[in-house]
């Protein structure tokens, strides 16, 4: 299965590009899906260690607001992406130093708490953040190139797709490295890791910082795509959504987050279009069905369809 | 310091009274969540939905009884009755047909099943009860108010909020403590909480205990909702607001610890009301600050037991 | 279960992805139906506004279509939920325009949604009628060729109740504010405070409280207010929170110690019923009170209210009226544009041009869309009272404030303009009706 992954990735990417060409409004939805997929890779990393963060919308929100705040001053998409990634990494390190001392529900809930504190700050510091009105992000030059709207949207889509590839590739390398393999050790028996002289907390912290960085990148891309940021980006249900996507896509491979995010966004759009007042119910039902009847998520389904093993 | 107390002592007294009633409500919701987590090891996101459905049902039943001309005092037992009804119907349904199928799966999957259920139930509430605020405050009105002296002035408090809510919380706490320590079923529940493997090895029917605990937890959630319904208007989304605070209580209290939940609720209730008096902008983040501080000092939660590390 | 080959799976996936694109059609010279995208809250706490407004929209569309449509074309509203947040909503607006091929968009209850989506009117060249959001930032910080607000806005909705308060209770000395902690709560406080400091300097603010959005318990805030005894308590809260606040406050007799000023009260009065205390200042974000003593078109007013009551067994609340205003503005605008082209169907730009400066009739009055896109809607404020006609509180001793007198002039920011107000304005503005 592993060797099919790159081929499937290319096919999935080709599919996304074709869909984005065919329907301009889908380009927007798919860019958001790619951005969320990138962020969900961080959730996947932590899931390898058996830890569920119920607060990663913190980094999405942080990345998005970094773009919104710095855009008038910096005004270059490429620089802003780097700034969001670096900022989220620093924040992830600070929060991570604290939360990686904890496991299971404590880890999950402390992340939730951090996320909710950040959300509250975005609402409370009204004069800086404009509260729930949010901040608008104008079309910006990328890497020094001034762009018109359509080119800009294609460029952000392209960047999201490119980053998805690069980051997924790096994540695969990381998971196969000793640091990545050690994550599974945290999940099964942490004590054994330490007997072998591997500092479990350090392993988890590294993964946590990486997850924060990709969360920040995802958030920055969302801000550059929807071009308006609001505190809702880091409400706790948004964190739940990320975990939702991770499980929907399947935790087996790095393609899972992208399958999950694309499926999630499309189901939401179609559900909202057909049943505007019951889309939550439809999303919930889809998730239940996947969990109950397709363990391993969409990735697992794809794997079975090809005939390999999901994990 | 002494001077500050002279100036603000009276206000502090008022804050204590307010804090007690708010603590009572926090406890009623959180203790059910904590119990379920202790035994089933599932963070039940749908606990918030059960709270909301309990509240809506209580209001509906109250309105129905009033329309039939039943005497006002009947509205108080009706609150408890509707909570028991919601718990006894929905609890077993959810446990039997949903949770039981996924006990063998990873924690994150279990959590997401309840998240999916939460999304579905959000829309179900909307379909059943509509979107207009619903309220039925006969119980609060019936009990009237009491004037608390405040310097030369007096402050009216509703007896419902000052006595009934904290009273129910205390009765629930004492009743639960007695049940868990003195009855056979209660002790079995404690045994499963402490060490599930050992308990099942000794011949305890874990399935029965799971069903029992979950139903009981559902009843407590519904009771919290039902008791809040006379004071608050019910609108869509009320469950999401409530559950996130309960998460913080559970993590701070220590898993499955009812006394911990009581103490935490008290701290959070008082903390929030004191904040409203002296630094209102801090009110929202107070619970999270308390949580972080407690977990810094006691990583396993206030009353949590450090689990033996297994090799 | 049949196993799909990889190609089949992908093909199936593609079919599903591309389906909506095939539904999209180039706007025909004269469309068979007038498609209107409508964004409103269908989930979450603000659905208390969203669902009634959706009903009003559907009802009016039926009525209009039964009477021959707009310029001879039946209208079809397509609803979109604002609930899931801006990134979803912005995508939905694009879908409405690029896939559903809507001809115009009625946009948003939440200020956040409006601020995020209105710039899309420029990018997509689609007419947007802002039907309910109140933020003054929209037209004061930007110019839009395709966006118009078919109702009043925060500045007049806050200033009118303030003028009423200062006229009827000139001796107030202390004031407390309890607003929801989000943009409207903060904005409406800033507007009020700025205007109050100009019109009556020296009123002391004894407490500023912004409880969490969606709070269900205000007992602590109420205790503090009971202890502080401010002359006035100002609150622009709405929905379930206002209902909860009023009930908890009246139960503890806070209303006997103070005067409430509630500019958004109207939408909650039916639910509050008899528990709303009498003698407090209430507003409706406009002039469409159910007991309006002299509506401009009483027949139309009664037919709208009665049709809504018959269908849904309740009185329409202000979001229903705001939705109706958008529908009537659309009708007037489209018919004007068609008439200008001598019966031919207008392009998007021509349709937008028709709305600038448009004056359209409402049952209570007329609304003019100003040069900057802002609608001029009169404000009526009064004190709560009960009569035999309604099972809920309605205003009495009503004052009407003409929109032009309580709106910031074009080109000025509301907060700058409010600073320049003179105390004489209290007496000179508004008239009893």
Description:
The complex is a heterotrimer of chains A (311), B (311) and C (433). By secondary structure, chain A is mostly helical. Chain A has helices at 4-22, 24-48, 57-74, 77-99, 104-124, 126-129, 149-176, 178-188, 190-195, 200-226, 236-249, 256-274, 279-293, 297-306, and strands at residues 135-136, 228-229. Chain A has one domain. In chain A, strands 1-2 form a two-stranded antiparallel ribbon. In chain A, helix 8 packs across helix 10. Chain C is α/β, with parallel strands linked by helices and 433 residues long. In chain C, strand 3, helix 4 and strand 4 form a beta-alpha-beta unit. In chain C, helix 3 packs parallel to helix 4 and helix 12 packs across helix 13 (348-355). Chains A and C meet through helix 1, helix 2, helix 5, helix 10 and strand 2 of A and helix 1, strand 2, helix 3, helix 4 and helix 7 of C.
Beta-strand share of residues of chain A: under 5%
Strand content of chain B: under 5%
Please give the order of strands in the largest beta sheet of chain B. Answer: 1-2
**Main β-sheet description of chain B:** 2 strands, antiparallel
Rg of chain B, nearest Å: 20 Å
- What is the averaged pLDDT score of chain B? 87
How many DSSP E strands of chain A? 2
Largest interface: A-C, 46 and 49 residues
Helix-strand category of chain A:
mainly alpha
- Number of helix segments of chain B? 12
* Elements of chain A, N to C (H/E): HHHHHHEHHHHEHHHH
Which tags fit this structure?
heterotrimer; A: 311 residues; mainly alpha; two-stranded antiparallel sheet; 2 strands; 77% helix; globular; C: 433 residues; alpha/beta; Rossmann fold; eight-stranded mixed β-sheet; five-stranded parallel β-sheet; 15 helices; 16 strands; 16% strand
